[in-house]
Amino acid sequence: MDDPRANGKSTYEHDHDHVYKKPKLSSFITESEIRQEFGHHQPGIARINNGSFGSCPASIIAAQKRWQLKFLQQPDHFFFNLLQKRILHSRTLIKNLINADDVSEVSLVDNATTAAAIVLQNIGWAFAQGRFQRGDAVVMLHCAFQAVKKSIEAYVTRAGGSVIVVRLPFPVNSNEEVIAEFKKGLAKGKANGRNVRLAIIDHITSMPCVVIPVRELVDICREEGVDKVFVDAAHAIGSVHVDVKEIGADFYVSNLHKWFFCPPSVAFLYCRQSPISHDLHHPVVSHEYGNGLAIESSWIGTRDYSSQLVVPEVFDFISGFEGGIEGIRKKNHDAVVEMGQMLANAWGTNLGSPPEMCPSMIMVGLPASLGILSDEDALCLRTHLRDCFGVEVPIHYQAPKDGEVGTRDWDGCTTGYARISHQVYNTVDDYVKFRDAINQLVQNGLTSKMLSRKITSQLTD
Does the UniProt entry include the keyword Signal (predicted)? Predict the structure, then answer.
């Protein structure tokens, strides 16, 4: 199916069964229009956590509601005449965006967690069926998403596979540091005659947030004889440039609802054509089982498919920005680096990685006097910022490295980092509000332990 934007025109709008096309916008979206598109956001909240849940513009929400209503108006017609054609169109647009060879390589699934289940289920079968030897390894970064770790537990380790965990150095100064640690992990996985059957590589780690040199790591996997490479790129599309042929992985997943303006939840899973790709199946089995992963994924029973159907409208929305998705990505990157440096300078701390290793998110060190000495402390501060200051931002606890003390709030070791995001709706005021909130906590001499006791007291009163 051709990309209808190729002729400079916008994508489909449906009036019953007839299709018409809106004229292409003659000018780029204005700041006031951006404010309108995201006017449903709660007023007065510094929403600097786009990375967790994404953001959906009002025009896309309206398009989604139209598709939901179309299904409810005449379900048989929707299912037999519209659904599969429209999903194919969405897959085709994504195929062109990521430079896949064929649309059959692109499946739409709910999220990156579903994609991980698809890939790891296949690996688990290989162990259970004896195609892989017990003890053969899966290699992953220690900061892999928790759901991925649980999927490995559910599908791989219970079938006899072993797991090698590579610690990501953080704070990190260069790609070379990441590459060196990854090579050590592969060597450990291959020790004693074992094989590394799968490497799971984050394109952008979630917490702490770092852009990983994924193409270089995939090349190393090929050189070292790793069977398959799965790139978990939940944050990637819309945040970094994605070319799946250039990256070279066997499997690549990215959410479309984080940085690509789709409503929750939808993701694409790219599976490079190979013999194994024909043996991949959606974990929810429907009557489409055996017709290929893309077709299986396009029907998993009666549910709301509207988030997959509005992908063409999202392309329309993005085309309203100068430079399209690449223009948005560059603007967000430059802005988040500027805001991160502003915060670090205000607090006398540091960034977690150099700007070139940051996407549209960046890690900023928090004042040591806040006493963030555990994951519980980090969560407590996050809760306090949200409930008392109207600041939504994730907080990361980073254990001190060897040779650092960091066991008391006066040791001066940075053990707390904030992960700030920047999306098109953010303004400087959002980050100033965050800066001032932290400054007030420091000025008042509050620590995470004190905040924890305060929250516990409120809950028990």
Answer: no
